[in-house]
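Input chain follows. Return structure tokens only.
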Amino acid sequence: MADKNRSLFRLVSMLLVAAALYCAFSAVGSGLRFWVSLGIVSLIGIAYLLLFIQTDKDTEELIKKASVTPPDDNSTVSRFFMNNCPVPALVIDETGRVLKKTTGANEIFPDMREGEMLEEATGMDMKSFDSEYNPDMHEFEWKHFRVKPFTAINTESAGKTYTLLCFTDTRETDSLKDEAEGSRNYVALLLIDEYDELFSSEKDSKKSEVVTKIDRIAERFIERRNGLLKKLSDDRYLAIISEAELRKMGEKDYLAFLEDMHNIHVSERAYVSLSVGIGRGGSNLRESEEIARDALNVSQKQGGGHVVIKKSKDDTAFASYGGAYSKAEVSSQSRVKLFSDSLRNYAEGADKIIVMGHSYSDMDAVGAAAGLGGALRAMGLMSYVFVNRDTTLAMPVVDRLFTNIRSEAAELFVSEEQALELMTENTLVIIVDTNSKHNIDGREIYAKASKVIYIDHHIQVKDPIDNIIDRHLDPDASSASEIVTEIIRYYNLKSKLSCYYADALLSGIALDTKNFVMKTGVRTFEAAAYLKELGADPVSVKLLFANSFEIDKLRSRLIESAENYNNYAITTLSKEGYRFAVQVSEEDVSEAAQSMIASGAEISPEELNNAAYRSALEKKTGNIKVAAAQAADQLLNTLNIKASFAVFMTDEASVKISARSYGTVSGGANVQDIIKRIGGGGHITMAAADIRDKSLEEVCEMLKNALDEYDRAMKPIE
């Protein structure tokens, strides 16, 4: 019946064409002949429409018959459907075995044999298909096809279920879509960092010369990308760049642009730093400009000298490039002076001040907290310092203060419970050496505080400390202790502040600069010189870094297990090594208990043993962190090593990475850029990551993948 209808359909189609031509010819002749021929054409047209509908029904019937016909059947219906199906298709059974493929499918799968398993032949995941119609799609990486189950074919008689998979080639539509998206234009905003300070002491002629160089480099960079650049003010530019050009640009392009700017020297100690925000999103240029403005703010929060690309204002997974160069080494004295005045006003207006650092506090956090707390006390203010004795890595600093100024230290240092009891609505909490609200030593203190200020030298994290009334963030500073030293210089405390607080601050600077080698600028030495004036003793500070025999053994073990991976040193402390390192002996517990009693800790005899065990265990964990950091430092001294990484466990569910480098200027790598690829952060020369719910082996693999990505991004443009 279907074949007969198709023959009639072809015949009527031919008659319709002939009649239409006759009608057109008749229009030139008599009117009667025209109307008669028009009636004939109309009748043939109606017949054509009816036959078209019937033929369409026959096609649907054919598919229906194919659906209920077992795929292994070689009937006329089955053969016709497989040979004439308008789209490439496969028929599979419930196990995923390919039973039939259409003629069109032969072009997609020329080597596929009937009887093969679909998953093995194509890589498709069978879990995405149900026994009933499923709209989910599967994209093939090697070709652009959208695959969906057109229907579920249930054959009652055979008791089996079959699925028809239809393939749609999306290459043409994808190409048109890419072309349309590539033609979209986006806004980029450029800002010269600290413009006023940069030229504050320069002649107009010098300023004009430098600005001309900046303009030229910016224009060349944008024009090479077929974009437009408009100067908005002395220190601001607006650029328009297409999506197609942005796709061509990678990390190496942005870093090269920032480096070109950095190479413009204003003076011996001042050079140009540029912040860039790109709004790679929005339905129009106005929305793109708003996103670009937000991206520029992020770049500024990161300390400037970054290119930040955001796709929306709420984009938290934004791309950020830069940080290889700091801004001018000249200390921003005006900013420090303003902040020191602001801090004094807030402190004098508070009934109490509590200063604390980050969790697992190191010498920089404890040194900065103790130095600032001591300075505020010397000014006659009620300041306190909280240090978690169970987790801190800087107990030598605390012990030295208790040994030499016991009564003052006993009043200054408080436990978290004591701090919470002291707090009121008018208590000021100052957090040093971190800007992450997830990395604060006293979480409950922070949660209770209504007035918070933080002082930090790290690049701002994506989820920073909030509910602040003020902050001082300076990623160009070597350490939090350096910033605190610069602040207290304005308080004129030379005859009032104990030299032991100066030692604490100097130990913080020494730690983060690796004894004035890493990230050390003129301002670092100026801060150290001021601390020496306050009475700091470099020899006493060096003794604070003396290792225990246990830490030395752990460090040696880590160095011994190091491997060279493409000129990156990677060392790991195995799970067995971790478990051995955290073994707590009775002697360890006894020593911890005696230390707690000597420090005046208020604890019942019943709880003393448990508390001492926890303290001893935390000390063992702290030893691992110290040894890992020292091992990473030592591995940097190996020839041709661009960066070093220590991978270690601190508990059964957490793996940490300590990363070190001498910086890209010295031929090394940007470890902050590497570590951010696996969720960590830090500086170009020092970074870290804390990864949970991953094994040591998985984290090592993640690190190696990040190193490969970084190396690919850093390859020179050919």
